Amino acid sequence: MSTLKVQNLSVKIEDKSILNDFSLEIPSGEVHAIMGPNGSGKSTLSKALAAHPSYEVLGGTAELDGKNLIGLEPDEISRAGLFLAFQYPIEVPGVTIANFIRAAIQARMEDSKAFKAVDYYKDLYKKMDELGIDRKFTARALNDGFSGGEKKRCEILQMAMLDPRFCILDETDSGLDIDALRVVSEGVNSMRSANRGFLVITHYQRLLDYIVPDKVHVMWEGKIVRSGDKELAKELESKGYDWIKEELAA
Q: How does 42-73 read in b/e, with b if 16+ C-beta sit within 10 Å?
């Protein structure tokens, strides 16, 4: 059972404070969505949890199953069970998808000699088929020359193969057409289980029609200012964020 518990997290980038005593708890088995206007701190949260070097944590904790992730290196955070699907996946020329995922899996094995290539490729091809990824992509360099939809499908493929305990999806719907959005969402939904939690960061209600959240949170100026069920996302879609601004000013 994996629980992500963030308490009083404050983060800045350069001289600008972004998160201010941010707190959120997501139990295993639940999908939580965070929505909010540009600049509210959504992506800052994901990058701070993954130890992006540009973001400085000023205080607070972020525990995954009781282990504080703050201060750990990105590789240690990944090994602890946290996976981040980027809004803008990085291109890695010269490293094939198959070799990249294989290296990541072997790095997590206590005995890399126990790795069985036949089983690996069987599992990889199965998941590629489910995500509508041509098997020839195994020989292509990671995200190099990929379309936006291809990059996002590749991110979900990595997530499925690494089998993390907790997943953060940072605007995974960005740049996806309707068909790609459906396929990517189906890939995410296939991984939902009682032993895994998800945090979905998005601007738009449309993603939450496919990946239905247990809870929706509204982020404003680095804090959660309102929480509710999936209907809250629909309310935001119809009223816009000025509605939240007016409520906070009242």
A: bbbbbbbbbbbeebebeebebbbeeeebbebe
Q: What angle do CA 4, 8, 10 make, to 5 degrees?
A: 105
Q: What is the pLDDT of residues 190-246, one digit of tens each?
A: 999 999 999 999 988 889 999 999 999 999 989 999 999 999 998 888 888 777 777
pTM, to two decimals: 0.91
d(CA 108, CA 214): 30
Give the model confidence (pLDDT) of 105-150 as tens digits.
988 877 766 788 999 999 999 999 988 899 999 999 999 999 888 8
3-state secondary structure of 12: strand
Token representation of residue 42: 């959504």
Supply the CATH number for residue 97's domain: 3.40.50.300
**CA–CA gap between residue 88 and residue 148 (Å, rounded):** 8
Q: How far apart are CA 220 and CA 93, in angstroms?
A: 37
Print the domain residue range for 53. Answer: 4-249
Q: How many domains does the chain have?
A: 1
